[in-house]
Amino acid sequence: DQAEYMALLTRCRIAVFSHGLRQSTGWRYPEFLRASRCIVSEPLAYELPEPLEQGVNHLTFNDPDQCVEACSKILGDEDFAARMRRANYEYYQANVKPSSIIMNTIETALSAAQG
Questions:
Q1: 3-state secondary structure of 17
Q2: 37-41, 44-48, 66-70, 103-107: which has the minimum mean pLDDT?
């Protein structure tokens, strides 16, 4: 169930992401951000309103060897892992949390209305 899934996720330092249907950015990615996980991901096919930064919010891979290399970098550097987890927590709070999405939408609409 969802509670068990989130409990398991928060026990993992690294979350590995692969594309969904039609290269979509699936629902797991925001969950990884919410849980402040280090993310190792295939390159995202679609842009986000606020871009995620390579080496800050995630490490990308194109093949299994690159995935293992990225995971090894995170596991071998506690400070790097802590910085990535903090950056992902901050990204979630500012851009993904439902109240933040609503606030960002209102601010964008007001800005567009003002010219």
A1: strand
A2: 44-48
Where do the H-state alpha helices sit in 1-115? 2-11, 28-34, 64-75, 78-91, 98-113
Please give the model's pTM, rounded to 2 decimal places. 0.85
Residue 86 and residue 35 in contact, taking contact as beta carbons nearer than 8 Å? no
DSSP 8-state code for residue 93: I
Contact yes or no for 78/92 (Cβ under 8 A): no
50, 91 contact by CB (below 8 A)? yes
The pLDDT tens digits of the residues spanning 75-98 come to: 999 999 999 999 999 999 999 998
Spatial contact of 59 and 41, defined as CB atoms under 8 Å apart: yes
Residue 17 region by backbone torsions, left for phi larger than 0, else alpha for psi between -120 and 50, else beta? beta
The identity of residue 83, as a single letter, is R
Per-residue tokens: 16 = 């590995």
Q: What is the mean pLDDT of the chain?
A: 90
Amino acid at 49: P
